[in-house]
Amino acid sequence: MSELSSRREFVKTAGAAAVAASVLPLDALGLAQPRRRRYAIVGTGDRGSSMWGRALVQRYSDVLEFVGLSDVNHKRVAAAREIIGVECPTFTSFDEMCAGAKPDVLMVTTVDAYHADYIVKGLDRGMDA
Ligand SMILES: NC(=O)c1ccc[n+]([C@@H]2O[C@H](COP(=O)([O-])OP(=O)(O)OC[C@H]3O[C@@H](n4cnc5c(N)ncnc54)[C@H](O)[C@@H]3O)[C@@H](O)[C@H]2O)c1
């Protein structure tokens, strides 16, 4: 291919790309920001809030958003929301959190005896647990 022809080809291709970018939504071009993953915690004690939850918000808010926190103890889940620093809804029922918040990702930080049950429930609902 001659230099002139390859230049013409470049201008044609670049021009078409510029026009496409100006009229098509970014996701149609595969250029959109990936959607943030919908994150939930069940068991909002020390580990769920101070050890992991807060750090996730501080470091990874670009790729995740908290959509629900749940704990059988309503005072703990309310306190965890403050400690983690999020605005998401809180629940004392795991099932209600799943139905209402529709998380993609579930972190299980209850007392150990309930880990397996919640992991299985999360996986059954299609979440990464
Ligand atoms: N904190 C640590 O350094 C540490 C170290 C090793 C292991 N662990 C283990 O990790 C687990 C969590 O530790 P922690 O320090 O966060 O404990 P924690 O007592 O502070 O928190 C556990 C939370 O689970 C909640 N919970 C209990 N049963 C529940 C249920 N059925 N459904 C939903 N929530 C429920 C409790 O209300 C509480 O808020 C414990 O089992 C502990 O043995 C903790």
Explain this structure:
There is one protein chain. It is elongated and about 75 Å long. The protein contains five helices and four strands. Strands 3-2-1-4 form a four-stranded parallel beta sheet, sandwiched between helices. Helix 2 packs parallel to helix 3. With 129 residues, the chain is of the alpha/beta class. It folds into two domains: 1-32; 37-124, 3-Layer(aba) Sandwich (Rossmann fold), CATH 3.40.50. The chain binds nicotinamide-adenine-dinucleotide. Residues 42-48, 71-73, 76, 109-112, 114 line the site of nicotinamide-adenine-dinucleotide (NAD).
Compact description:
By secondary structure, the chain is of the alpha/beta class. It folds into 2 domains: 1-32; 37-124, Rossmann fold (3-Layer(aba) Sandwich), CATH 3.40.50.
How is this fold's topology laid out?
Blueprint: H1 3-23, E1 37-42, H2 46-60, E2 64-70, H3 74-84, E3 90-91, H4 94-101, E4 105-108, H5 115-124
Parallel strand pairs: 1-2, 1-4, 2-3
Key attributes of the depicted protein:
single chain; 129 residues; alpha/beta; Rossmann fold; four-stranded parallel β-sheet; 4 strands; 50% helix; binds nicotinamide-adenine-dinucleotide
C-alpha termini separation? 54 Å
Mean pLDDT over all positions: 88
Number of helices: 5
Radius of gyration: 22 Å
CATH topology of the largest domain: Rossmann fold
Coarse shape = elongated
What share of the residues does DSSP label as strand, in percent? Answer: 5-15%
Order of helices and strands: HEHEHEHEH
Low-pLDDT segments, ≥5 res? none
Q: Give the CATH class of the largest domain.
A: Alpha Beta
The second-level CATH architecture of the largest domain is 3-Layer(aba) Sandwich
Characterize the biggest β-sheet: 4 strands, parallel
**DSSP, total strands:** 4
Bound molecules: nicotinamide-adenine-dinucleotide
Number of domains: 2
Strand order of the largest sheet: 3-2-1-4
Q: Quick one: CATH superfamily of the largest domain?
A: NAD(P)-binding Rossmann-like Domain
What structural category characterises the helix and strand content? alpha/beta
Helix amount? 40-55%
